[in-house]
Write a structure and sequence with these properties.
Number of domains: 1
Distance between the termini: 15 Å
Shape: globular
CATH architecture: Orthogonal Bundle
CATH superfamily: ACP-like
Largest sheet: none
Structural class: mainly alpha
Order of helices and strands: HHHH
CATH class: Mainly Alpha
Number of helices: 4
Helix content: 40-55%
């Protein structure tokens, strides 16, 4: 039987990754922090983030998925990943 994964399992993985890749104090990153608007990650960080999400959660991010609201915060990314699983 396949186990259902929820955003509460996804968020800590994404948060941990963002904290490691961040250009800022990792303790300041919350689930609703606007990651790109606040300069925590840059465009290169987005590319590595996409690769991380694809490899970790085993799905392909399409060009049409590359909208700011899908990646603006840890909460938004968790919701996006959930919509693809």
């Amino acid at each position: 039987m396949e186990q259902m994964v929820g955003t509460e399992e996804i968020k800590p993985k994404i948060k941990s990754y963002v904290q490691e890749a961040a250009f800022t104090n990792p303790d300041k990153i919350e689930e609703t922090t606007l990651i790109f608007k606040e300069g925590i990650l840059d465009s290169m960080g987005l590319i590595t983030l996409i690769t991380y999400l694809e490899e970790t959660f085993n799905f392909q991010i399409k060009e049409t998925d590359l909208e700011e609201e899908n990646f603006e915060s840890i909460q938004a990314m968790a919701n996006f990943v959930m919509s693809r699983l």
